[in-house]
Amino acid sequence: MTELANNSGPESAAAHARDALWPNYSPPQDIVFSHGRGSELFTDNGDVYLDFLSGIAVTAFGHAHPHLVQALNSQSEKLWHLSNVFRIPEGERLAARLSENSFAGRVFFANSGTEAIEAGIKAVRGYQVAKGHKEKYRLIGFSDSFHGRTIAAVAASGNPNYIQNFAPTDHGFDQVAWGDIEAVKAAIGEHTAGIIIETVQGEGGIRPVTQAFLSQLRELCDQHGLLLMLDEVQCGVGRTGTLFAHENFGVTPDVLASAKGLGGGFPVGACLTTEEIGQHMVVGTHGSTFGGNPLAMAVGNAVLDLVLEPGLLDDVKRKGAVLREGLENLAASYPTVISTVTGLGLMIGVKCVVPNTDMLTALRANKLLVGKAGDNMVRLLPPLNVSDEHVTQALQTIETVLKQMQ
Fold it and tell me: What is the reported pTM?
């Protein structure tokens, strides 16, 4: 401590603090946000950024939404934590509301998307064992997937960028090419328990599943006694204009993982299952110390209040269509910089001709925050309540950058 104090002013102290963290991502060192309001983020030196990343689809209703702030503040003065050794009424209420508005009969609450995925994997395997099929433990996944960063989640994804040296064995997962139904059929064997797929791929390139393919997966599961598990960690909770993305295709899963937008910025994860599956996850099969805590449940219910407001989901579809049409027009006008536009609702990917990192950096320099994804994409994930004016502003900023880069 003496050496640090003798060596430094504020810059050295800040650098030392940064070095104390694992480098999860590579944040720009010259930007530090002090607060946010709605779709805007403010730095401590007064710069204003339009946030079309939303903490990677997390701040579903922007920053400091008054209804969410009120819910969190109110609960914070009552109870923060009990653990599930006691009843948590707000969690019971949120589970019931999710069940009433989805296919689910049972819900498990966690703290993150990857925990929701892990719970779902256990539910799939546990169901098969409960039905007398101990031999069925393997799940089929798809290329370019991302299901999280725990060992089982990276094994399910099968993506070498995330597996690295962390999962030296397959841990009971088989991967096939995205969209290849014949490869799925060939991969089904006596040990297959289920199929896991993102309804809209996020990291893999903002790629929605087709209705035909998802229907075929459902049919194969029904035919072979398998469970269909959907990863809607990023694409769920209103992001595509329906409460859950699979509703766009009229196909019902057996298990679904949710997180990100469900907490509006507060850590919440959820695994939804049918009653038939959930009843087998009895006491002792799974649990979480922090999952379903009173703070998270209060905010989750407040988020659901907003998502289920009449007209909100229709408005997401409308604004998504406006944004996508504008981007497609720009792709036609600047084909040497960007090409195709993909996605659903307010989960939109733009395939770049130039490196996507260059595009992301240029947009950030023009005070528009977006993300990147696989297949040389940038992804736009604005808040679900983004204003029409901010949609127009984002399109204008993107056009300014495209002119600079052509």
Answer: 0.91
